Amino acid sequence: MTTPPPDPAGSSDPPPPPPGDDEELLAAYVGPNWRRHYQRSFAAFRAGSFGPPINVAAALAPQWLAFRGFWLLQLVACFLYWIGAATVGEVSSGMADDWLVFVLPYVALGGIEGFVGDRLVYWRAKRALARVRARGLAQAEAVAAMRKAGGVSVVGPVLIPAASFAVIFLLIDSMGHGHSHEQAYVAAMKSDLRNLVTAEEAYFADNVTYTGSLTNMSFTQSTGVTITVGSVSGIGWSATATHNATPRVCGIYVGGGTPPFDGANEGEPKCGPADQVVQHRH
To answer: How many helices (H) and strands (E) are present in the chain, helices listed first?
Structure first.
């Protein structure tokens, strides 16, 4: 058996280090929650199993993706969240409670993040492991490199929640002002309808009938409010009020007039979405 000739330069590259313990490197990448959670899920993924159904922390934490360094995905999730909140508010036509507008998209995105959370971490950890092994580092150096590549972000838990809470606070504050304005518009419509009752009764006292013409009565509409009188007869009438700054409609009826809303009480204004007005139904 012959031995290879010596290197002309007088030296040769050292042999690559042994593979070492991949699990130790994965644990270094994940951080403190390795044994408590990720060790079991990673083992299931390596064995080809579908894995645990959900990562509870990912489902509940509002910025879990940022905590784990998935910055772009976190931005996409935030974007989808606000789209979801706007969609819920639009579909509910303003009738859903404010907290539902925020909670429903949060639950939906939380479920998605909880389902894919472990899989995302496993995918990124495998990529980091492949890069570290390709560099031919000794085990101790590889552990340090994996720890630096992974772990939990320090910036995410500090900056992103603070920024998100600031945005949420501003949005809620804006919604609160919008809700106050909405109440003012509804109050103006109700006030006009009550004044209309007084005007119609005064007209009835002089003419023994009601009228559908506002100009026949001593009555003035509030700014932005439009009153429409319908189903007028000698025994009753009904009317609806709209405002140019809100899609809501208010209605009232007296005597034999048609109640504008189901469940309305005579002489008492009632408000709701336009598609619930009885006289608007086909």
So the answer is: 8, 4
